[in-house]
Each structure stands twice: as C-alpha cells, then as structure tokens.
Amino acid sequence: MLSVNHLSVRRGDQWIIRDLSFRLEGIRRLFLQGEIGTGKSTLLQALLGFIPAQQGEIRLFGALCQTEKDFRPFRGRIGFCFQNPDDQLFGPTVLDDVAFGPLNQGLSKPEAYTVARRQLEKLGMDYLKDRSVNVLSGGEKNFVALAGVLAMRPEMLLLDEPTNGLDSKNIKKLTALLRDLNLPMLIASHDSAFTEQLADSVLWLRKPENG
Ligand SMILES: Nc1ncnc2c1ncn2[C@@H]1O[C@H](COP(=O)(O)OP(=O)(O)OP(=O)(O)O)[C@@H](O)[C@H]1O
C-alpha cells in the first residue's frame, strides 16, 4: 500500500530525512515519533508529493511515484490532515467544506451534501454544520477537517498531530473513531498516551548528520 525505500529529503540546504525505509501494509496503524523538527511533517508531505524527494523510492498502491504528477492520481485515495487545520478548511460553512471532497469526486450536489451531513453526524459534529469554518475552535477545526477527509472514503490516512487542540474527552473520541475505521494509517504524534492506545508500531525519526 505504501512503501518507502532509502528515502532522503532535503529542505533548503539541510537534510531532514536520510535513508529512511519502511512499509505500511494491511490494516495497520504506524505512528511517527521524534523530537520537534525531526521531519515528521516533511515525511508526510513528501509521501503525497508536496515536497520532492532527492533520493530513494516512494510507492503508493504499488506504483512508483517520482515526479509531482505521479502522485496526483493517488491523492484522492489517501486522506491527509495537515498539522494546522486552517491549511485545509475553506468553507464557507462546515457543511460546504465537508461536501467539497465528495463533490470533487463527482457526486451530485444532493448526494455530496448527504454524505457530508452523515459524516458530521458520525463524528457528533452535525451541530456545527451551518457555522462558518472561520469561527470554529481549534479542536472543532480538527474534527471538521477529519470529517472532510473521511467523507471522501479514503483507503489510507496520513494524519499530522491529530490530537492538537483536543481535550482528553475528545482525544478518547478520536481514538475510538480511528480504531473503528479499520484503515491503514500513518500518524505523526507527540502524544504518548494516544500513541500507546492506537499504535501497532512506531517509527522513530532522528535528525540526520548534515554536512
Ligand atoms: N519550507 C521550509 N524550508 C526550509 N526548512 C524547512 C521548511 N519547512 C520546515 N523546515 C525545517 O525542516 C525541519 C523539519 O520540519 P518538520 O515540520 O518536518 O518537523 P516535525 O518533526 O514535523 O516537527 P514538529 O514535531 O515540531 O511538528 C525543521 O528543522 C524545519 O525548520
């Protein structure tokens, strides 16, 4: 489903990821951990082709992805939540935002809005549906961004710090929700309790030698 072989990624004049290899197969939850700045977000973005890799191989669903164009057909099959949900919410309302993905996938307007409403209900967020995305709290934004991603029925999830802005009750809710999804997922998280609850395995990132 996802395989990474000897991947190296540079940002500016610094190597951020050096010679990294791993695979994500089956219904597994692989967590990315490491100190701040060790490249967790960089890796997730490289896996979607948003940041180019200098060396190594990324395969999505078996296909070798090298240029940005190679990644495009797979982005609709992979649900990605950015570390900052403001980077992916554009509304205007919560319901419009969640319906945007299904509309883009070719559903009719009534179908897309039905899917969006159901997804918000599943997350217990339907009470937000008519609100502007600009007035949501940080935690609400996280859940709405996740609803938008799940409404597209992804085959794999890449989540960047999904517990940011959530209180313990909502971290529990998110944990249960992700466990019930039965999807392969790669999750960057600094939250050790959340990781312990969900991770099948953990990949530790370290700062590479630069020079
Ligand atoms: N656009 C950029 N240009 C140059 N360097 C960048 C850029 N974006 C990030 N970096 C650097 O790349 C390194 C890795 O950043 P990244 O955000 O991937 O780390 P992270 O492990 O996700 O960190 P955190 O745990 O704080 O979220 C950091 O040193 C960061 O300063």
Overview of this protein structure:
- Helix 3 (94-104) packs across helix 4 and helix 3 packs parallel to helix 5 (138-150).
- This protein is an alpha/beta fold and 211 residues long.
- The longest helix has 14 residues, at 109-122.
- It folds into two domains: 1-76 and 186-211, P-loop containing nucleotide triphosphate hydrolases (Rossmann fold, 3-Layer(aba) Sandwich), CATH 3.40.50.300; 78-154, no CATH class.
- It has helices at residues 40-47, 68-75, 94-104, 109-122, 138-150, 168-181, 192-198; strands at residues 2-11, 14-24, 29-33, 55-60, 63-64, 78-81, 156-160, 185-188, 201-204.
- The strands form two sheets. It has a five-stranded parallel β-sheet with strand order 6-7-8-3-9, with helices on both faces. The chain has a four-stranded antiparallel β-sheet with strand order 2-1-4-5, covered by helices on one side.
- The structure holds adenosine-5'-triphosphate.
- The site of adenosine-5'-triphosphate (ATP) has 12 residues, from helix 1.
User: By helix and strand content, what is the structural category?
Assistant: alpha/beta
Q: Which blocks of ≥5 consecutive residues have pLDDT under 50? A: none
CATH class of the largest domain: Alpha Beta
- What string gives the helices and strands in order? EEEHEEHEHHHEHEHE
Structural Rg: 17 Å
CATH topology of the largest domain: Rossmann fold
Task: Write a compact overview of the structure shown.
36% of the residues lie in helices and 24% in strands.
